[in-house]
């Protein structure tokens, strides 16, 4: 990829800032007034009093045609109207979800010299990181993260996965394998709900060799949460996101009708959301939606975002079956590698990227 090789400024670990006991956040983390969650209770509802849809996926596997239709209908409605839903009874064992979250929390509490061995660069972002875009002087988010590749197999390198705590790699292999299965099941539902063959979206993403990666987010305690964000407003650039949230500390906010709604995680639920690539493939029948993360003055937070993506070199464009004179293609063909380069250079920018790519009508 045509991406610079290193960060433009020395990297500062936000966790180290938080643990230093500072009473004020550095100016580099203070958001413009229009972007701040001013006056917001970090454990509260944001601007809204509703929550994203909660869907029991057991109906998909019930064998009862009526339950299957009802569940698929709820998924379709959520993807079209919200771009987000919570999923329970999704098939991933609860104990494995707990283990995955636990080993990553342990990693972020390892000594800094061990974590620094995995420090990343803008070239692939793989490893331990503390900023996304590479613009010099950019306002930064109050978070650290760890990014790793899982699929295609040619990109997976266990040497870049943490060796500690013990059993970390074994837990993550099992966990990510389960998420690939869940992603495949959801892609069939999303295809059928568009009136396409059940394998259409999977094939558009690359068949068996899709792209799959994980970003683990660590949001340290923040002395001035009203002035900053853990992750700035953005829509996910990839295909489908399966998020394992921190069930004890809310933080994810979804934008709906101009208001920010703080998601209340259900026990052992995943938060599923549509990414920009599915918005393109569906010709905006499915919506990728802006979301952001607020931080907490008293509690740290860990979440695991799994991205089920197209393979990087494949052209993505609206499905021809969804195109007609009345509904022309809204996007030109573009590879996912070309698309996500923008994110890697600029950092999160709301929905400006996917909207800027629309074809003139």
Automatic annotation (TrEMBL):
Biological process per Gene Ontology, one example term: regulation of defense response to fungus
Keyword Membrane among record annotations: no
One Pfam family of this chain: 2OG-FeII_Oxy
Key words, A-Z: Dioxygenase, Iron, Jasmonic acid signaling pathway, Metal-binding, Oxidoreductase, Plant defense
UniProt-listed InterPro entries: DIOX_N, IPNS-like_FE2OG_OXY, IPNS-like_sf, Oxoglu/Fe-dep_dioxygenase_dom, Plant_2OG-oxidoreductases
Catalyses which reaction(s): jasmonate + 2-oxoglutarate + O2 = (1R,2R)-12-hydroxyjasmonate + succinate + CO2
Protein name: Fe2OG dioxygenase domain-containing protein
Species this chain originates from: Carnegiea gigantea
